[in-house]
From TrEMBL:
GO terms for molecular function: protein-N-terminal asparagine amidohydrolase activity; protein-N-terminal glutamine amidohydrolase activity. Residues 12-87 form the CN hydrolase domain. This is CN hydrolase domain-containing protein. PANTHER family: PROTEIN N-TERMINAL AMIDASE (PTHR11750:SF26). It comes from Micromonas pusilla (Picoplanktonic green alga). GO terms for biological process: protein catabolic process.
């Protein structure tokens, strides 16, 4: 169940580094992009954002995005993005696998 109050959001923001480190480990281990939602605390202003960070297969941040339109439960603790909508391009690998069946006939 996803509902945070201001105290819960502030506690979750304290785990942002741990969450992003975990996501980076997963990205590197699986050699894939990982998108993870988290609470982001702006250390300068003290404002909290409902954010999503996308990491590449090397565990490096490709883009971090703060939500522009908040869900009503997020309005209790989060601030809308100051920069508006964002877009980015991802370079994704396409891996195709085939299964070869070998049939051996003995006569």
């Amino acid at each position: 169940r996803y509902i945070l109050d201001a105290g819960g959001a502030r506690a979750a923001a304290g785990q942002e580094g741990e969450i992003l480190a975990w996501a980076a480990d997963v990205a590197r281990a699986l050699r894939c992009h990982v998108c993870v939602g988290h609470v982001r605390l702006d250390a300068r202003t003290g404002e909290m954002f409902n954010s999503q960070t996308t990491l590449d297969e090397d565990g490096e941040t490709v883009v971090a995005y703060d939500k522009t339109h908040l869900y009503f439960v997020d309005e209790k603790w989060a601030v809308e993005s100051k920069t508006g909508f964002a877009q980015t391009s991802l370079s994704l690998k396409v891996i195709r696998t085939t299964t070869k069946t070998t049939t051996t006939t003995t006569t």
